[in-house]
Design brief:
The complex is a heterodimer of chains A (230) and B (399). Chain A has 230 residues and is an alpha/beta fold. Chain A has a single domain, classed as Rossmann fold (3-Layer(aba) Sandwich), CATH 3.40.50. Chain A has seven helices and ten strands. The radius of gyration of chain A is 17 Å and the shape is globular. In chain B, strands 3, 4, 5, 6, 7, 8, 9, 10, 11 and 12 form a ten-stranded mixed β-sheet that branches. In chain B, strands 1-2 form a two-stranded antiparallel ribbon. Classes of the chains: A alpha/beta (230), B alpha+beta (399).
Chain lengths: 230, 399
Amino acid sequence: MSEFFVGEPKIETHGVTKVYADGRVQALAGVDLTVAAGEFVAVTGPSGCGKSTLLGLLAALDAPTSGSIRVGTYVLEQLHDADGFRRQEVGLVFQFHNLLPRLSALHNVEIAMLGSTRPHAERAGVALGLLDDVGLADLAHRRPPQLSGGERQRVAVARALANEPSVLFADEPTGSLDSRSTEVVLALFQRLRTDRGVSIVMVTHDELVAAVADRTVHMLDGRITPAGGT
Amino acid sequence: MSGPARSPAANGLEQEVHPVTSRDDHPLTMTALIGANLWAKKARSMGIAFAVALAVMTVVTLTVVSSGLETAASAVLTVGKADFTVAQNGVSDLLYSNIDTGQLARIGATPGVRSSVGVLLETERIDAADPLFIEIGIQPDDLTTFGVTVVAGSAYGATASNEVMLGWRAAQNLGLHVGDLFHANGTENRIVGIYSTGISYGDSAAMFPLPALQAYNRVPGSVSLVFVKIDPGQSSARVQRTLTRDQPELTTISTLAQAGRADRNLVFLKAAVTGSTILALVIGAIVVGNTMLLSLFERTREFGLLRAIGWSRVRVVWLVVSESLLLALLGSALGVALSFLVTSVLEALPQLHGVLHSDFTPGAFWRGFAVGIGMAVLGSLYPSVRAASLTPLKALSNE
Protein backbone atom coordinates (compact mmCIF):
# COMPACT_ATOMS: atom_id res chain seq x y z
CA MET A 1 0.00 0.00 0.00
CA SER A 2 1.36 3.41 -0.92
CA GLU A 3 2.18 6.06 1.66
CA PHE A 4 0.18 8.59 -0.38
CA PHE A 5 -3.33 7.44 0.45
CA VAL A 6 -3.24 7.88 4.20
CA GLY A 7 -4.18 11.59 3.95
CA GLU A 8 -7.31 13.50 2.93
CA PRO A 9 -9.52 11.79 0.38
CA LYS A 10 -8.75 13.27 -3.04
CA ILE A 11 -11.97 12.12 -4.67
CA GLU A 12 -15.34 11.56 -3.00
CA THR A 13 -18.65 10.69 -4.58
CA HIS A 14 -21.96 10.28 -2.81
CA GLY A 15 -25.05 8.74 -4.34
CA VAL A 16 -24.06 9.61 -7.88
CA THR A 17 -26.63 8.67 -10.51
CA LYS A 18 -26.71 9.20 -14.24
CA VAL A 19 -29.80 8.65 -16.35
CA TYR A 20 -29.77 8.87 -20.15
CA ALA A 21 -32.39 8.87 -22.90
CA ASP A 22 -35.23 10.59 -21.07
CA GLY A 23 -35.00 8.31 -18.08
CA ARG A 24 -35.00 5.05 -19.98
CA VAL A 25 -31.34 4.16 -19.34
CA GLN A 26 -29.87 4.34 -15.87
CA ALA A 27 -26.07 4.23 -16.31
CA LEU A 28 -25.25 4.88 -12.65
CA ALA A 29 -27.55 4.02 -9.80
CA GLY A 30 -25.96 5.62 -6.74
CA VAL A 31 -22.20 5.38 -6.65
CA ASP A 32 -20.25 6.10 -3.49
CA LEU A 33 -16.51 6.12 -4.03
CA THR A 34 -13.55 7.52 -2.15
CA VAL A 35 -10.03 7.76 -3.55
CA ALA A 36 -7.20 8.93 -1.36
CA ALA A 37 -4.51 11.35 -2.48
CA GLY A 38 -1.87 9.39 -4.35
CA GLU A 39 -3.96 6.25 -4.53
CA PHE A 40 -4.14 4.12 -7.68
CA VAL A 41 -7.64 2.67 -8.01
CA ALA A 42 -8.79 0.32 -10.74
CA VAL A 43 -12.49 0.19 -11.63
CA THR A 44 -13.52 -3.07 -13.23
CA GLY A 45 -16.75 -4.60 -14.40
CA PRO A 46 -18.50 -5.92 -17.50
CA SER A 47 -19.26 -3.79 -20.50
CA GLY A 48 -22.13 -1.36 -19.89
CA CYS A 49 -21.82 -1.44 -16.10
CA GLY A 50 -21.16 2.32 -15.96
CA LYS A 51 -17.37 2.40 -15.52
CA SER A 52 -16.69 4.93 -18.28
CA THR A 53 -19.73 6.99 -17.33
CA LEU A 54 -18.39 7.27 -13.78
CA LEU A 55 -14.99 8.33 -15.11
CA GLY A 56 -16.59 10.98 -17.35
CA LEU A 57 -18.47 12.41 -14.39
CA LEU A 58 -15.33 12.46 -12.20
CA ALA A 59 -13.53 14.41 -14.95
CA ALA A 60 -16.48 16.82 -15.32
CA LEU A 61 -16.89 15.73 -18.92
CA ASP A 62 -20.55 15.31 -18.14
CA ALA A 63 -22.82 16.17 -15.20
CA PRO A 64 -24.48 13.62 -12.89
CA THR A 65 -28.27 13.40 -12.70
CA SER A 66 -28.01 13.46 -8.92
CA GLY A 67 -25.47 13.01 -6.17
CA SER A 68 -22.30 14.88 -5.33
CA ILE A 69 -18.72 14.65 -6.52
CA ARG A 70 -15.71 16.31 -4.97
CA VAL A 71 -12.25 16.27 -6.56
CA GLY A 72 -9.66 18.01 -4.38
CA THR A 73 -11.19 21.32 -3.42
CA TYR A 74 -13.63 21.28 -6.35
CA VAL A 75 -17.27 20.39 -5.72
CA LEU A 76 -18.27 19.47 -9.26
CA GLU A 77 -22.00 20.21 -9.01
CA GLN A 78 -21.05 23.79 -8.08
CA LEU A 79 -18.43 24.07 -10.79
CA HIS A 80 -18.70 27.16 -13.00
CA ASP A 81 -15.62 26.51 -15.09
CA ALA A 82 -15.43 22.81 -15.91
CA ASP A 83 -12.85 23.51 -18.64
CA GLY A 84 -10.58 25.28 -16.16
CA PHE A 85 -11.02 22.42 -13.67
CA ARG A 86 -9.96 19.87 -16.26
CA ARG A 87 -7.08 22.04 -17.41
CA GLN A 88 -5.73 22.57 -13.91
CA GLU A 89 -6.55 19.39 -12.02
CA VAL A 90 -7.23 16.53 -14.40
CA GLY A 91 -5.19 14.41 -16.74
CA LEU A 92 -7.11 12.16 -19.13
CA VAL A 93 -5.96 9.05 -20.96
CA PHE A 94 -8.31 7.24 -23.34
CA GLN A 95 -8.33 3.75 -24.81
CA PHE A 96 -7.79 5.25 -28.22
CA HIS A 97 -5.03 7.76 -27.61
CA ASN A 98 -6.91 10.58 -29.43
CA LEU A 99 -3.72 12.20 -30.69
CA LEU A 100 -3.97 14.67 -33.54
CA PRO A 101 -2.34 12.89 -36.49
CA ARG A 102 -1.14 16.07 -38.17
CA LEU A 103 0.90 17.20 -35.16
CA SER A 104 4.19 15.78 -33.94
CA ALA A 105 4.34 13.94 -30.62
CA LEU A 106 5.88 17.05 -29.10
CA HIS A 107 3.10 19.31 -30.33
CA ASN A 108 0.48 16.78 -29.24
CA VAL A 109 1.78 17.24 -25.72
CA GLU A 110 2.10 21.00 -26.07
CA ILE A 111 -1.49 21.39 -27.25
CA ALA A 112 -2.72 20.76 -23.71
CA MET A 113 -0.74 23.81 -22.60
CA LEU A 114 -2.13 26.21 -25.23
CA GLY A 115 -3.92 28.92 -23.38
CA SER A 116 -2.02 28.37 -20.16
CA THR A 117 0.04 31.14 -18.64
CA ARG A 118 3.22 29.20 -19.31
CA PRO A 119 5.49 31.11 -21.73
CA HIS A 120 5.64 29.77 -25.29
CA ALA A 121 9.30 28.94 -25.10
CA GLU A 122 8.88 26.95 -21.89
CA ARG A 123 6.05 24.80 -23.24
CA ALA A 124 8.24 22.98 -25.73
CA GLY A 125 10.79 22.30 -22.98
CA VAL A 126 8.14 20.94 -20.62
CA ALA A 127 6.65 18.80 -23.37
CA LEU A 128 10.04 17.40 -24.26
CA GLY A 129 10.71 16.68 -20.59
CA LEU A 130 7.43 14.76 -20.35
CA LEU A 131 8.22 12.79 -23.48
CA ASP A 132 11.58 12.00 -21.93
CA ASP A 133 9.77 10.77 -18.82
CA VAL A 134 7.75 8.35 -20.92
CA GLY A 135 10.84 7.32 -22.86
CA LEU A 136 9.98 9.01 -26.12
CA ALA A 137 12.24 12.07 -26.27
CA ASP A 138 13.95 10.65 -29.35
CA LEU A 139 10.64 10.31 -31.16
CA ALA A 140 9.36 13.78 -30.26
CA HIS A 141 9.15 14.88 -33.87
CA ARG A 142 7.36 11.85 -35.19
CA ARG A 143 3.70 12.08 -35.98
CA PRO A 144 1.25 9.55 -34.47
CA PRO A 145 1.01 7.44 -37.65
CA GLN A 146 4.78 6.93 -37.37
CA LEU A 147 4.50 5.58 -33.81
CA SER A 148 3.45 2.16 -32.48
CA GLY A 149 0.26 1.79 -30.44
CA GLY A 150 2.22 1.69 -27.18
CA GLU A 151 4.24 4.75 -28.12
CA ARG A 152 1.09 6.66 -28.99
CA GLN A 153 -0.43 5.79 -25.63
CA ARG A 154 2.72 6.98 -23.88
CA VAL A 155 2.47 10.27 -25.78
CA ALA A 156 -1.15 10.49 -24.58
CA VAL A 157 0.06 9.96 -21.00
CA ALA A 158 2.64 12.72 -21.47
CA ARG A 159 -0.11 15.00 -22.76
CA ALA A 160 -2.28 14.16 -19.76
CA LEU A 161 0.53 15.28 -17.47
CA ALA A 162 1.30 18.53 -19.31
CA ASN A 163 -0.58 20.75 -16.89
CA GLU A 164 0.68 18.92 -13.79
CA PRO A 165 -2.65 17.39 -12.79
CA SER A 166 -3.29 16.08 -9.31
CA VAL A 167 -5.57 13.32 -10.62
CA LEU A 168 -5.32 11.09 -13.65
CA PHE A 169 -8.34 9.39 -15.15
CA ALA A 170 -7.61 6.59 -17.57
CA ASP A 171 -10.34 4.84 -19.55
CA GLU A 172 -9.16 1.42 -20.74
CA PRO A 173 -5.66 2.82 -21.34
CA THR A 174 -4.28 -0.59 -22.26
CA GLY A 175 -7.35 -1.81 -24.12
CA SER A 176 -5.75 -1.51 -27.52
CA LEU A 177 -2.18 -2.38 -26.54
CA ASP A 178 -0.12 -5.56 -26.75
CA SER A 179 1.22 -7.07 -23.54
CA ARG A 180 4.64 -5.40 -23.77
CA SER A 181 3.14 -1.95 -24.29
CA THR A 182 0.62 -2.64 -21.53
CA GLU A 183 3.45 -3.32 -19.11
CA VAL A 184 5.22 -0.09 -20.09
CA VAL A 185 2.10 2.04 -19.63
CA LEU A 186 1.21 0.45 -16.27
CA ALA A 187 4.77 0.92 -15.03
CA LEU A 188 4.42 4.55 -16.05
CA PHE A 189 1.23 4.90 -13.99
CA GLN A 190 2.91 3.40 -10.97
CA ARG A 191 5.79 5.83 -11.34
CA LEU A 192 3.37 8.75 -11.56
CA ARG A 193 1.80 7.70 -8.31
CA THR A 194 5.05 7.22 -6.48
CA ASP A 195 7.11 10.05 -8.03
CA ARG A 196 4.44 12.71 -8.45
CA GLY A 197 1.77 11.70 -5.95
CA VAL A 198 -0.90 11.72 -8.63
CA SER A 199 -4.18 9.99 -7.73
CA ILE A 200 -5.15 7.59 -10.49
CA VAL A 201 -8.53 6.12 -11.35
CA MET A 202 -8.22 3.57 -14.14
CA VAL A 203 -11.16 1.88 -15.79
CA THR A 204 -10.37 -1.57 -17.15
CA HIS A 205 -12.15 -4.80 -17.88
CA ASP A 206 -8.88 -6.72 -17.57
CA GLU A 207 -8.37 -8.20 -14.09
CA LEU A 208 -4.62 -8.63 -14.70
CA VAL A 209 -4.26 -4.95 -15.47
CA ALA A 210 -6.40 -4.04 -12.46
CA ALA A 211 -4.10 -6.07 -10.23
CA VAL A 212 -1.38 -3.46 -10.68
CA ALA A 213 -3.50 -0.87 -8.86
CA ASP A 214 -3.50 -0.34 -5.10
CA ARG A 215 -7.17 -1.17 -4.95
CA THR A 216 -9.83 -2.50 -7.27
CA VAL A 217 -13.50 -1.61 -7.15
CA HIS A 218 -15.95 -3.72 -9.10
CA MET A 219 -19.05 -2.32 -10.72
CA LEU A 220 -22.21 -4.02 -11.85
CA ASP A 221 -25.41 -2.46 -13.21
CA GLY A 222 -24.39 1.08 -12.34
CA ARG A 223 -23.35 0.35 -8.78
CA ILE A 224 -20.17 -0.57 -6.96
CA THR A 225 -20.67 -4.10 -5.74
CA PRO A 226 -20.35 -4.67 -1.98
CA ALA A 227 -17.25 -6.76 -2.51
CA GLY A 228 -15.80 -3.94 -4.58
CA GLY A 229 -15.62 -1.59 -1.59
CA THR A 230 -15.71 2.21 -1.78
CA MET B 1 21.91 19.31 -25.13
CA SER B 2 22.46 20.55 -21.58
CA GLY B 3 20.78 18.89 -18.62
CA PRO B 4 17.15 19.53 -17.79
CA ALA B 5 16.11 22.42 -15.52
CA ARG B 6 13.23 21.95 -13.10
CA SER B 7 10.12 24.04 -12.66
CA PRO B 8 7.79 23.87 -9.62
CA ALA B 9 4.64 21.90 -10.37
CA ALA B 10 1.11 22.39 -9.07
CA ASN B 11 1.14 19.06 -7.30
CA GLY B 12 4.13 20.09 -5.22
CA LEU B 13 6.65 18.12 -7.21
CA GLU B 14 9.00 19.48 -9.81
CA GLN B 15 8.57 19.15 -13.53
CA GLU B 16 11.52 18.75 -15.82
CA VAL B 17 11.97 21.43 -18.45
CA HIS B 18 14.25 20.18 -21.17
CA PRO B 19 16.27 22.60 -23.26
CA VAL B 20 14.86 22.39 -26.76
CA THR B 21 16.96 21.52 -29.74
CA SER B 22 16.91 23.57 -32.95
CA ARG B 23 14.16 21.33 -34.35
CA ASP B 24 11.96 22.18 -31.34
CA ASP B 25 12.43 25.91 -31.39
CA HIS B 26 9.02 26.64 -32.91
CA PRO B 27 6.63 26.10 -30.04
CA LEU B 28 3.05 25.25 -30.88
CA THR B 29 1.00 28.43 -31.06
CA MET B 30 -2.62 28.94 -32.06
CA THR B 31 -1.41 30.31 -35.39
CA ALA B 32 0.78 27.26 -36.00
CA LEU B 33 -2.12 24.97 -35.06
CA ILE B 34 -4.48 26.80 -37.43
CA GLY B 35 -1.90 26.51 -40.21
CA ALA B 36 -1.39 22.80 -39.51
CA ASN B 37 -5.15 22.17 -39.52
CA LEU B 38 -5.61 23.90 -42.85
CA TRP B 39 -2.54 22.28 -44.37
CA ALA B 40 -3.80 18.84 -43.33
CA LYS B 41 -6.83 19.33 -45.60
CA LYS B 42 -5.14 21.15 -48.45
CA ALA B 43 -7.72 20.43 -51.14
CA ARG B 44 -10.62 21.51 -48.94
CA SER B 45 -8.78 24.62 -47.75
CA MET B 46 -7.95 25.58 -51.32
CA GLY B 47 -11.58 24.97 -52.31
CA ILE B 48 -12.86 27.36 -49.63
CA ALA B 49 -10.21 29.97 -50.44
CA PHE B 50 -11.08 29.73 -54.12
CA ALA B 51 -14.81 30.12 -53.42
CA VAL B 52 -14.03 33.24 -51.40
CA ALA B 53 -11.71 34.46 -54.17
CA LEU B 54 -14.41 34.11 -56.82
CA ALA B 55 -16.92 36.03 -54.72
CA VAL B 56 -14.40 38.76 -53.90
CA MET B 57 -13.29 38.95 -57.53
CA THR B 58 -16.90 39.43 -58.65
CA VAL B 59 -17.59 42.11 -56.08
CA VAL B 60 -14.33 44.02 -56.65
CA THR B 61 -14.64 43.85 -60.46
CA LEU B 62 -18.23 45.10 -60.44
CA THR B 63 -17.34 47.81 -57.95
CA VAL B 64 -14.31 49.12 -59.86
CA VAL B 65 -16.19 49.07 -63.16
CA SER B 66 -19.17 50.88 -61.65
CA SER B 67 -16.84 53.31 -59.92
CA GLY B 68 -15.04 53.89 -63.23
CA LEU B 69 -18.32 54.66 -64.96
CA GLU B 70 -19.36 57.00 -62.17
CA THR B 71 -16.01 58.79 -62.29
CA ALA B 72 -16.29 59.14 -66.07
CA ALA B 73 -19.85 60.43 -65.82
CA SER B 74 -19.01 62.91 -63.14
CA ALA B 75 -15.69 63.96 -64.71
CA VAL B 76 -17.58 65.96 -67.31
CA LEU B 77 -19.11 68.00 -64.51
CA THR B 78 -15.71 69.05 -63.24
CA VAL B 79 -14.61 70.48 -66.59
CA GLY B 80 -16.67 73.62 -66.25
CA LYS B 81 -15.27 74.42 -62.78
CA ALA B 82 -18.75 75.58 -61.86
CA ASP B 83 -20.38 75.96 -58.45
CA PHE B 84 -22.99 73.49 -59.63
CA THR B 85 -24.30 71.91 -62.82
CA VAL B 86 -27.88 71.74 -64.04
CA ALA B 87 -29.24 68.70 -65.88
CA GLN B 88 -32.59 67.36 -66.96
CA ASN B 89 -34.31 65.62 -64.06
CA GLY B 90 -34.71 61.83 -64.19
CA VAL B 91 -32.51 61.32 -67.22
CA SER B 92 -31.08 57.82 -67.75
CA ASP B 93 -27.64 59.13 -68.67
CA LEU B 94 -26.31 62.64 -68.05
CA LEU B 95 -25.16 62.76 -71.68
CA TYR B 96 -28.82 62.40 -72.72
CA SER B 97 -29.88 65.41 -70.66
CA ASN B 98 -31.74 67.94 -72.79
CA ILE B 99 -32.19 71.58 -71.78
CA ASP B 100 -33.78 73.99 -74.23
CA THR B 101 -33.08 77.67 -74.88
CA GLY B 102 -35.95 78.87 -72.71
CA GLN B 103 -34.83 76.83 -69.73
CA LEU B 104 -31.25 78.01 -70.26
CA ALA B 105 -32.43 81.63 -70.20
CA ARG B 106 -34.45 81.08 -67.00
CA ILE B 107 -31.42 79.49 -65.35
CA GLY B 108 -29.37 82.59 -66.21
CA ALA B 109 -32.14 84.80 -64.75
CA THR B 110 -32.35 82.93 -61.45
CA PRO B 111 -31.45 85.22 -58.53
CA GLY B 112 -27.87 84.65 -57.36
CA VAL B 113 -26.65 83.22 -60.67
CA ARG B 114 -23.61 85.11 -61.97
CA SER B 115 -23.01 83.10 -65.13
CA SER B 116 -24.50 80.09 -66.84
CA VAL B 117 -22.80 78.24 -69.66
CA GLY B 118 -24.83 75.75 -71.68
CA VAL B 119 -22.87 72.99 -73.36
CA LEU B 120 -23.88 70.14 -75.60
CA LEU B 121 -22.14 66.84 -74.92
CA GLU B 122 -21.96 64.10 -77.49
CA THR B 123 -19.86 60.99 -77.94
CA GLU B 124 -18.54 59.61 -81.19
CA ARG B 125 -16.46 56.64 -82.22
CA ILE B 126 -13.26 58.10 -83.64
CA ASP B 127 -11.34 54.85 -83.89
CA ALA B 128 -10.96 51.55 -82.04
CA ALA B 129 -8.99 53.23 -79.28
CA ASP B 130 -11.59 55.99 -78.83
CA PRO B 131 -15.05 54.46 -79.15
CA LEU B 132 -16.60 57.10 -76.87
CA PHE B 133 -14.69 60.24 -77.80
CA ILE B 134 -16.28 63.26 -76.10
CA GLU B 135 -17.33 66.24 -78.16
CA ILE B 136 -18.32 69.47 -76.44
CA GLY B 137 -20.39 72.13 -78.14
CA ILE B 138 -19.83 75.55 -76.57
CA GLN B 139 -20.03 79.16 -77.69
CA PRO B 140 -16.60 80.82 -78.07
CA ASP B 141 -17.74 83.64 -75.76
CA ASP B 142 -18.25 81.13 -72.98
CA LEU B 143 -14.83 79.49 -73.28
CA THR B 144 -13.15 81.71 -70.69
CA THR B 145 -16.03 81.33 -68.23
CA PHE B 146 -15.91 77.58 -68.80
CA GLY B 147 -12.22 77.62 -67.78
CA VAL B 148 -10.78 77.00 -71.25
CA THR B 149 -7.35 78.39 -72.15
CA VAL B 150 -6.26 78.27 -75.78
CA VAL B 151 -2.63 77.11 -75.72
CA ALA B 152 -2.00 76.94 -79.49
CA GLY B 153 -3.72 78.51 -82.48
CA SER B 154 -6.96 80.34 -81.74
CA ALA B 155 -10.58 79.74 -80.79
CA TYR B 156 -13.14 78.94 -83.48
CA GLY B 157 -15.67 81.54 -84.62
CA ALA B 158 -19.18 81.54 -83.14
CA THR B 159 -20.83 80.44 -86.35
CA ALA B 160 -17.89 78.72 -87.98
CA SER B 161 -18.51 75.36 -89.51
CA ASN B 162 -15.97 72.62 -89.92
CA GLU B 163 -13.75 74.15 -87.26
CA VAL B 164 -12.69 72.41 -84.11
CA MET B 165 -10.39 72.80 -81.11
CA LEU B 166 -8.74 69.75 -79.59
CA GLY B 167 -7.81 69.31 -75.96
CA TRP B 168 -4.06 69.00 -75.63
CA ARG B 169 -4.30 65.37 -74.43
CA ALA B 170 -6.56 64.44 -77.33
CA ALA B 171 -4.19 66.14 -79.79
CA GLN B 172 -1.26 64.31 -78.25
CA ASN B 173 -3.05 60.94 -78.32
CA LEU B 174 -4.24 61.40 -81.89
CA GLY B 175 -0.96 62.96 -83.07
CA LEU B 176 -2.72 66.02 -84.49
CA HIS B 177 -1.69 69.68 -84.59
CA VAL B 178 -3.16 73.07 -85.43
CA GLY B 179 -3.97 73.15 -89.11
CA ASP B 180 -4.51 69.38 -89.38
CA LEU B 181 -7.84 67.89 -90.32
CA PHE B 182 -9.89 66.03 -87.71
CA HIS B 183 -12.56 63.71 -89.04
CA ALA B 184 -15.70 63.87 -86.88
CA ASN B 185 -19.45 64.11 -87.31
CA GLY B 186 -19.13 62.86 -90.86
CA THR B 187 -17.00 65.79 -92.03
CA GLU B 188 -13.41 66.95 -92.09
CA ASN B 189 -12.88 69.70 -89.49
CA ARG B 190 -9.90 72.03 -89.50
CA ILE B 191 -8.12 72.14 -86.13
CA VAL B 192 -7.89 75.87 -85.36
CA GLY B 193 -6.64 75.62 -81.78
CA ILE B 194 -5.43 73.42 -78.97
CA TYR B 195 -6.89 74.11 -75.54
CA SER B 196 -6.37 73.21 -71.91
CA THR B 197 -8.93 73.07 -69.12
CA GLY B 198 -6.68 71.68 -66.43
CA ILE B 199 -9.07 68.73 -66.17
CA SER B 200 -7.91 65.48 -67.75
CA TYR B 201 -11.39 64.56 -68.96
CA GLY B 202 -11.89 67.93 -70.71
CA ASP B 203 -8.41 67.89 -72.19
CA SER B 204 -9.09 64.50 -73.80
CA ALA B 205 -12.09 65.90 -75.73
CA ALA B 206 -12.79 68.17 -78.69
CA MET B 207 -14.75 71.46 -78.72
CA PHE B 208 -17.01 72.59 -81.53
CA PRO B 209 -19.06 75.77 -82.01
CA LEU B 210 -22.37 75.05 -80.24
CA PRO B 211 -24.64 75.58 -83.30
CA ALA B 212 -22.42 73.34 -85.42
CA LEU B 213 -22.52 70.42 -82.95
CA GLN B 214 -26.27 70.95 -82.47
CA ALA B 215 -26.71 70.77 -86.24
CA TYR B 216 -24.49 67.68 -86.57
CA ASN B 217 -26.58 65.90 -83.95
CA ARG B 218 -29.95 67.34 -85.03
CA VAL B 219 -30.72 68.95 -81.67
CA PRO B 220 -31.03 72.64 -82.55
CA GLY B 221 -31.33 74.95 -79.53
CA SER B 222 -30.55 72.19 -77.05
CA VAL B 223 -27.74 71.79 -74.58
CA SER B 224 -26.99 68.84 -72.29
CA LEU B 225 -25.76 70.57 -69.19
CA VAL B 226 -25.59 74.07 -67.83
CA PHE B 227 -22.60 75.06 -65.73
CA VAL B 228 -23.53 77.68 -63.18
CA LYS B 229 -21.38 80.07 -61.17
CA ILE B 230 -23.05 82.07 -58.45
CA ASP B 231 -22.55 85.62 -57.22
CA PRO B 232 -20.01 86.06 -54.42
CA GLY B 233 -21.63 85.79 -50.99
CA GLN B 234 -24.58 83.79 -52.30
CA SER B 235 -25.45 80.39 -50.85
CA SER B 236 -25.08 77.72 -53.50
CA ALA B 237 -27.68 75.53 -51.78
CA ARG B 238 -30.24 78.34 -51.71
CA VAL B 239 -29.70 79.19 -55.39
CA GLN B 240 -30.08 75.49 -56.28
CA ARG B 241 -33.29 75.25 -54.25
CA THR B 242 -34.72 78.33 -55.96
CA LEU B 243 -33.77 76.99 -59.39
CA THR B 244 -35.28 73.53 -58.94
CA ARG B 245 -38.41 75.01 -57.33
CA ASP B 246 -38.94 77.27 -60.34
CA GLN B 247 -38.01 74.55 -62.85
CA PRO B 248 -38.82 71.16 -61.30
CA GLU B 249 -38.01 69.43 -64.59
CA LEU B 250 -34.36 70.26 -63.86
CA THR B 251 -31.98 68.98 -61.23
CA THR B 252 -28.78 70.42 -59.83
CA ILE B 253 -25.54 68.58 -59.18
CA SER B 254 -22.70 69.81 -57.03
CA THR B 255 -21.14 66.60 -55.68
CA LEU B 256 -20.04 63.24 -57.05
CA ALA B 257 -22.80 61.54 -55.08
CA GLN B 258 -25.42 63.83 -56.62
CA ALA B 259 -24.06 63.02 -60.06
CA GLY B 260 -24.49 59.34 -59.29
CA ARG B 261 -28.07 59.93 -58.17
CA ALA B 262 -28.95 62.16 -61.15
CA ASP B 263 -27.81 59.51 -63.62
CA ARG B 264 -30.39 56.73 -63.48
CA ASN B 265 -28.13 54.29 -65.32
CA LEU B 266 -25.57 54.73 -62.57
CA VAL B 267 -28.27 54.32 -59.95
CA PHE B 268 -29.32 51.02 -61.54
CA LEU B 269 -25.71 49.93 -61.92
CA LYS B 270 -24.94 50.67 -58.28
CA ALA B 271 -28.08 48.84 -57.22
CA ALA B 272 -26.92 45.86 -59.30
CA VAL B 273 -23.49 46.01 -57.65
CA THR B 274 -25.07 46.11 -54.19
CA GLY B 275 -27.34 43.21 -55.11
CA SER B 276 -24.42 41.21 -56.47
CA THR B 277 -22.41 41.93 -53.33
CA ILE B 278 -25.21 40.64 -51.09
CA LEU B 279 -25.72 37.62 -53.35
CA ALA B 280 -21.98 36.84 -53.36
CA LEU B 281 -21.94 37.18 -49.57
CA VAL B 282 -24.88 34.84 -49.07
CA ILE B 283 -23.78 32.22 -51.61
CA GLY B 284 -20.20 32.39 -50.34
CA ALA B 285 -21.33 32.06 -46.72
CA ILE B 286 -23.38 29.00 -47.63
CA VAL B 287 -20.42 27.42 -49.46
CA VAL B 288 -18.02 28.16 -46.60
CA GLY B 289 -20.60 27.12 -44.00
CA ASN B 290 -21.36 23.86 -45.76
CA THR B 291 -17.69 22.97 -46.09
CA MET B 292 -16.92 23.97 -42.53
CA LEU B 293 -19.88 21.92 -41.32
CA LEU B 294 -18.56 18.87 -43.16
CA SER B 295 -15.18 19.50 -41.61
CA LEU B 296 -16.82 19.82 -38.20
CA PHE B 297 -18.47 16.41 -38.48
CA GLU B 298 -15.14 14.87 -39.38
CA ARG B 299 -13.41 16.60 -36.48
CA THR B 300 -16.01 16.02 -33.77
CA ARG B 301 -13.70 13.74 -31.77
CA GLU B 302 -10.91 16.29 -32.06
CA PHE B 303 -13.10 19.04 -30.63
CA GLY B 304 -14.20 16.67 -27.89
CA LEU B 305 -10.57 15.96 -27.08
CA LEU B 306 -9.70 19.66 -26.97
CA ARG B 307 -12.61 20.29 -24.59
CA ALA B 308 -11.57 17.26 -22.52
CA ILE B 309 -8.05 18.56 -22.03
CA GLY B 310 -9.37 21.89 -20.83
CA TRP B 311 -9.96 24.04 -23.87
CA SER B 312 -12.82 26.46 -23.31
CA ARG B 313 -15.78 26.78 -25.67
CA VAL B 314 -14.57 30.23 -26.67
CA ARG B 315 -11.16 28.85 -27.61
CA VAL B 316 -12.70 26.13 -29.79
CA VAL B 317 -14.97 28.71 -31.50
CA TRP B 318 -11.94 30.92 -32.02
CA LEU B 319 -9.98 28.03 -33.56
CA VAL B 320 -12.71 27.25 -36.10
CA VAL B 321 -13.46 30.90 -36.93
CA SER B 322 -9.74 31.68 -37.23
CA GLU B 323 -9.28 28.86 -39.72
CA SER B 324 -12.08 30.38 -41.82
CA LEU B 325 -10.72 33.88 -41.40
CA LEU B 326 -7.27 32.85 -42.58
CA LEU B 327 -8.77 31.19 -45.65
CA ALA B 328 -10.93 34.28 -46.20
CA LEU B 329 -7.89 36.56 -46.09
CA LEU B 330 -6.01 34.37 -48.55
CA GLY B 331 -9.09 34.07 -50.75
CA SER B 332 -9.72 37.83 -50.61
CA ALA B 333 -6.14 38.60 -51.63
CA LEU B 334 -6.44 36.12 -54.49
CA GLY B 335 -9.83 37.60 -55.43
CA VAL B 336 -8.42 41.13 -55.61
CA ALA B 337 -5.52 39.89 -57.75
CA LEU B 338 -7.98 38.06 -60.02
CA SER B 339 -10.13 41.19 -60.33
CA PHE B 340 -7.05 43.08 -61.63
CA LEU B 341 -6.57 40.33 -64.18
CA VAL B 342 -10.23 40.16 -65.18
CA THR B 343 -10.63 43.93 -65.61
CA SER B 344 -7.43 44.06 -67.66
CA VAL B 345 -8.79 41.32 -69.91
CA LEU B 346 -12.20 43.04 -70.16
CA GLU B 347 -10.63 46.39 -70.97
CA ALA B 348 -8.54 44.77 -73.70
CA LEU B 349 -11.57 43.17 -75.40
CA PRO B 350 -12.29 44.95 -78.70
CA GLN B 351 -15.96 45.35 -77.76
CA LEU B 352 -15.11 47.06 -74.46
CA HIS B 353 -11.84 48.82 -75.26
CA GLY B 354 -12.12 52.50 -74.37
CA VAL B 355 -15.61 51.99 -72.94
CA LEU B 356 -14.69 50.23 -69.71
CA HIS B 357 -12.52 52.21 -67.35
CA SER B 358 -11.85 50.41 -64.08
CA ASP B 359 -11.32 52.65 -61.11
CA PHE B 360 -9.45 50.74 -58.39
CA THR B 361 -10.36 52.75 -55.31
CA PRO B 362 -9.52 51.75 -51.72
CA GLY B 363 -13.27 51.42 -51.19
CA ALA B 364 -13.43 48.62 -53.77
CA PHE B 365 -10.70 46.69 -51.95
CA TRP B 366 -12.34 47.17 -48.56
CA ARG B 367 -15.65 46.07 -50.00
CA GLY B 368 -13.99 42.95 -51.40
CA PHE B 369 -12.25 42.14 -48.13
CA ALA B 370 -15.45 42.86 -46.17
CA VAL B 371 -17.28 40.34 -48.36
CA GLY B 372 -14.50 37.77 -47.87
CA ILE B 373 -14.40 38.24 -44.10
CA GLY B 374 -18.19 38.36 -43.91
CA MET B 375 -18.44 35.06 -45.76
CA ALA B 376 -15.96 33.47 -43.37
CA VAL B 377 -17.59 34.79 -40.21
CA LEU B 378 -21.15 34.02 -41.30
CA GLY B 379 -20.15 30.65 -42.74
CA SER B 380 -18.16 29.45 -39.76
CA LEU B 381 -20.27 30.86 -36.95
CA TYR B 382 -22.83 28.06 -36.82
CA PRO B 383 -20.30 25.22 -37.28
CA SER B 384 -18.00 26.66 -34.62
CA VAL B 385 -20.78 27.23 -32.08
CA ARG B 386 -22.04 23.72 -32.77
CA ALA B 387 -18.53 22.33 -32.28
CA ALA B 388 -18.17 24.17 -29.00
CA SER B 389 -21.59 23.21 -27.69
CA LEU B 390 -20.95 19.46 -27.91
CA THR B 391 -20.33 17.88 -24.55
CA PRO B 392 -16.78 16.48 -24.53
CA LEU B 393 -18.00 12.99 -23.65
CA LYS B 394 -20.50 12.92 -26.51
CA ALA B 395 -17.96 14.30 -28.96
CA LEU B 396 -15.32 11.79 -27.89
CA SER B 397 -17.69 8.88 -28.36
CA ASN B 398 -18.54 10.04 -31.89
CA GLU B 399 -17.54 7.52 -34.55
